[in-house]
Every structure is written in structure tokens, then in C-alpha cells.
Amino acid sequence: MAACIFCRIIKGEIPSFKLFESDKVFAFLDIQPLSRGHALVIPKYHGAKLTDIPDDHLTEILPVAKKIAQVTGATDFNVLQNNGRIAHQVVDHVHFHMIPKPNEEEGLGIGWPAQATDMDKLKEYYESIKAKM
């Protein structure tokens, strides 16, 4: 945690353009934005992946992301959260991006490689995970 850039931002060791802070959440503007208003909303609890964060440290995340979207005037936007390197996570501290999408050129660009579904296999998978919920 001592080397975590986001933990250092929370502690004030690295300056940020802080938008919001509470006991459990910190939000600030991204210094390498994909568009104007691109912000990060992070739990103060250090954890690399979403599954590492206690539920009570996540309760304010989406309301804060929503408020940032509202105050920036974003009408189209993405809320993005990545877990692990192959899922494009670069900083090992859970963080949510609120990325305004003002036009086709700015903001998040993604592909969506949808695959054909075998409904019998999908039903079998559904039943296996539903039983664990």
C-alpha cells in the first residue's frame, strides 16, 4: 500500500484535483483523461480487485459517479471498472472511471466481441452459478 499511487493521492502525498471525499470514498479528475470531465472514484480501502473490497466501502461509489456525471453535464458517459491485467487494469487499487462521451472521437472507445450462444450450455452454467448466489 505504501507504493500505491492512489493510496498516496488519498493521503495527500501526491496532489490531485479532488472532487469529493468522505470517510470511505475519494474522487478526483483523471490527469490523462479520455474526455473533459473524466474522473476516478475510488474506495479509500486498499484492494486490487472489486472482490477485495468490503461491501460497506462500495456503497457510495455509484452515487458519487452519478453526481460527477451530473455536475460535468455529461449526457452520454461510461462508468468503467477493470479487474486484473488482461482486463486492462493498470493501477492495483480498485477504481471506477466516469468517462463522458461527448462525441464519437472523445471518451471511451470499445469493441464488443459478442459470441453465439449454445442455450443448453448457457442454461447449465446459469444453474451452476444461480445455486451459489
Please supply descriptive tags for the structure shown above.
Histidine_triad_CS; five-stranded antiparallel β-sheet; 5 strands; hydrolase; 133 residues; 3 helices; nucleotide-binding; single chain; alpha+beta; HIT-like_sf; HIT family, subunit A
Strand order of the largest sheet: 1-2-3-5-4
Any idea of the CATH class? Alpha Beta
Poorly predicted runs of 5 or more residues: none
CATH architecture classification: 2-Layer Sandwich
The largest pleated sheet is described as: 5 strands, antiparallel
Task: Determine the structural class based on helices, strands and strand pairing.
Answer: alpha+beta
Give the total of domains: 1
Per CATH, the superfamily is: HIT-like
What level of helicity do the residues show? Answer: 10-25%
State which percent range the strand residues make up. 15-25%
The total count of strands amounts to 5
Residue-averaged pLDDT: 96
CATH-derived topology? HIT family, subunit A
Question: If you compute it from the alpha carbons, what radius of gyration comes out, rounded to the nearest whole angstrom?
Answer: 17 Å
The arrangement of helices and strands along the chain is HEEEHEEH
How many helical elements? 3
The CA-CA distance between the termini, in Å, is: 31 Å
Cα shape: globular
Active site: 95 (tele-amp-histidine intermediate)
Protein name: Adenosine 5'-monophosphoramidase HNT1
Organism: Emericella nidulans (strain FGSC A4 / ATCC 38163 / CBS 112.46 / NRRL 194 / M139)
Pfam families: HIT
